[in-house]
Amino acid sequence: MSTVAITGASGYVGxxxxxxxxxxxxxxxxxxxxxxQRFELxxxxxxxxxxxxxxxxxxWAFGVKSGExxxxxxxxxxxxxxxxxxxxxxxxxxxxxxxxxxxxxxSLYGKGKLAVEPEALRMGFxxxxxxxxxxxxxxxxxxxxxxAVKASPVVPLIGDGSYPQYLVHEEDLAELxxxxxxxxxxPAEPVSAASGEAIPFRELLRRIAARHGRKPFFVPxxxxxxxxxxKTMESVGLNPPFRSDSLIGFVFQNPEPHLDSCISSFxxxx
Length: 270
Hints:
Layout lengths: L2 E5 L4 H12 L3 E6 L4 E2 L13 E6 L9 H21 L4 E5 L11 H15 L3 E5 L1 E3 L5 H12 L2 E5 L5 E2 L1 E3 H13 L8 E3 L5 E2 H11 L5 E5 L1 H13 L8 H8 L19
Parallel strand pairs: 1-2, 1-4, 2-3, 4-5, 5-6, 6-11, 7-10, 8-13
Antiparallel strand pairs: 9-12
Helix pairs in contact: 1-5, 2-3, 7-8
């Protein structure tokens, strides 16, 4: 039985990828703070790589509060992990990046992913840039949007709601990652994982609401006002439904996303 090591396997994206590998008959070695194989991004990499054929790196520390901390934990921590895997003989792997990652991005999240990507490619790992991931029971950003739409008929709208969103179903993303872990050679460039359909944010919320039989009333709110509120909540130790850094990435998107590498079989969002 083949074995894949997955960081962040308890998270939304990581759990979807884990289910996919198990469905294909693979053994999944979950790496995390609460797993038998303990691993914490930014800490010592003390993993028993025996029998591991592939690594999928999904973990990311979202609680970092400065560029220096992000560099230490997420960037250098990710590179050390992949280097340890390669030195142990793990031949294949996938680094989960993001469409929020591009030259000139402003969010800490995007900047961190952008710094790790060339290191992953240098070591022969594939790099996948997913769009907004969704599924039957979504988590992450999509899960937060669903909760917001279901919580009240009045839904705050970021700006005028025109910001385009590119989505990918969790199963399509997981299958892509699985195939890349079987490939003999990783692609030389990051692979975009999104359907290619640009859905304005307002329209996305409307479709989510329609799934639950709702007709939301949108109230446009200036993004700077939302950002100030999120930062205030974070400064006093509260955990808002959206991180201020996520809002930065949402507002300052890639003006020309490279979707030429999108897989045509990705299903459109319904």
